Fold:
Amino acid sequence: MSNSDIEVTDLDQSAIIEVYEKLYDQFVDVKRLTFSMAGMHRKPDAVAALISKEISNMVGVKSNAVWLLTGAHHMVEMAKDGKPIPVDERRTIEWNSSSEVRDQVLNQRVIWGPFHGEMKALFPHFESPIVFPIKGSTKALGFLILDQGAQLDAEGCQHIAGFSALILEMSDLYFRLKDEIKERQSLEALLIKERDRAQKYLDVAEVILLALDELGRVELINRKGCQILGYPLEEIIGKDWFECFVVNDDRQFLKSVFVDVLTSGSESSMYVESGLVTRNGEERLIAWRNTRVTNDEGRAIGTFSSGEDITERKRVEREKQRLQAHLFHAQKMEAIGTLVGGIAHDFNNMLQIIIGYSDLILMDTKKTDPVYSDIQSIIRTSKEGAELVRRLLLFGQESSISKEPLDLNDLVKQLNLIMSHTLPKVALVELDPSSEAVRIHGDRNQIEQIVMNVVINASEAMPKGGRIKIRTRNVALDDDYCRSFYGVKPGKYAELLIADTGRGMDTSKLEKIFEPFFSTKERGSTRGTGLGLSVVQGIVESHGGHIKVESQPGKGTEFRIYLPAMEFESTTPPMSNV
Structure:
C-alpha cells in the first residue's frame, strides 16, 4: 500500500493536533524557563529556588521541594514552594551504604508515592508525592519532589528537572572556572610581585646580570646592563645577544664559549673577557662569569651570566704599565748616561794627549817624510774620537749648555737653507711654521742638532724619496695627556713636529730607538753611530721637554718634540692623550 492510499480520519487529526499543541506548550515553558535562568551565573541554592518557583506555577502541583547533593553522602533541602529556604532552616540528610535514600539517588528514576521510612521523612506532609531526579551528565545532582493534584503535567515537570540539571552543571562549571581564574589571578599577582622584587634585587647589582635561552636570545637583563648598552629593556629582550651586542672580533669566540657552557655538564662558572657595542657605537670590555641553566629534567635550557665593566680598569692598567716602562727606560738611560759620562771624560783626556803629542811630532816632521801623512791620519782620527766624546758627554748631560731666547719659526727657516744643500734631492722638506712666534729658552746649537739629527734620520728612511714635514705650534698639555708620560707636567709647550713618509718602524724597534748605539740601519753600515736619537733625547730632557714618537711600517714616522714655552697667548685648545 502506498502512502497516498493511507486515509487519515478526523479522530487521527485531532490526536495529532493535540500532540503538537502539547509539544509547543512544553517548548514555550522551557523557553521561558531558559530566559529566567540563563544569562545569569547563580549559586546552586538560587537555581533551586528558580526551579521550585517554576514548578509552583504549573497546573496540578500543590506543593514542591528541591533537594540538591552537596557531597558524596549528603543532601540539603534548598527551596520549597517557590521560595529559597534560609541557611539556618535547611534540612539535611546523610546516608550510608544500606540507605534507602542512597538507592534512590543511584537509580535516578521517576518515583511515584506513597513512600515510607527515610524517603517519607523528606516530604512528610505530601499526600501524593512524585520524585523527579535531577540528573547530570555523569552523576546525580538532586531531586525535584512535588505533591501532585489533578491534571498534573508530569512530562513537563520531567523536562524542567532535566533542564535544571543542565543549568546546575553550567553554574557549577562557571563558579569552578571563576574560582580557578581567581586563584590563577592571585598566583599571577604573587608571581608579578615576586618578579618585581627579584628585579629590584637584580637592578641594585652594579654588574650586568644576563640570562640567555639555548638559542642565545636575551630572556633577562638588569638595569645595569641596559645602562651600559644604552638601550631600553624592551629593545633588548628577545634579541640575539651575539649578533646585536657583541663586537665583531669577539663574536665567534663568545659563541663557542656559549656552546661550551651549555654542553659542559658542569654548573661551575666559566670566566671570559669580551667586548660589547653600545648604542652609540662605543666598545666596552666586560669580564663575564657564565654558568648554564637546566630544567627539572637536567637538560640545559640556557645560560646565566654576570658581567663587570672593566674598560676603565684595563685602561688604568695599560697606563700604569706604560708609565712603569717610561720610568724603567728613564732609569736605564740615566744609568747609561752616568756610565758613559765617566768613561768619556777619561777617554777625552787620553785623546787630548794623543792629539797634543801628534801635533808636536808633526811640527818636527817634514812634509816630504813618508810618516807625515800617517801622523795627520792619527790627528784626524783622534779629533773624530773627540767629537764622539762630545756627543757622549751631551748624551750624559754633562756638557755645558748656553740657553737663550729662541723662536723655533726662525730657527727651522734658517736650517732649511742648510738642509736644502745637504739632504738628498729626493727628500722634499715642507715647512709649516706657526702664525705666531713659538718661543723657548734653549741652547741654539743643541736645538739645531735636534732638528738636523731627526731630519737626517727621516731622509735615510726614504731612500726612494718622500716628504719631510716640519711644523711648529704653541700648545697647552693638560693633566690627561701628562698622566701618560712619566715626569711630564701640564702647562704651555712649544711643539716641534717632524714627520716623514718613509718605511716606518714596528713596535719592537720603536721601543728601542732612544737606546745608545741602537740603529735601524743595515748591520755593517758605516752611516751613523747609533747615538743620534739618544743625543736628541738627552738634549730634549736637559731642556725640560719630552718626545712622543708614532710609527707604522710602510706609513712613515712622526716625532713630536715638546719644549717648555716662554710666555705666549695660545689659540690652540689643550691637548689630551685620546
In short: The chain is about 45% helix and 25% strand.
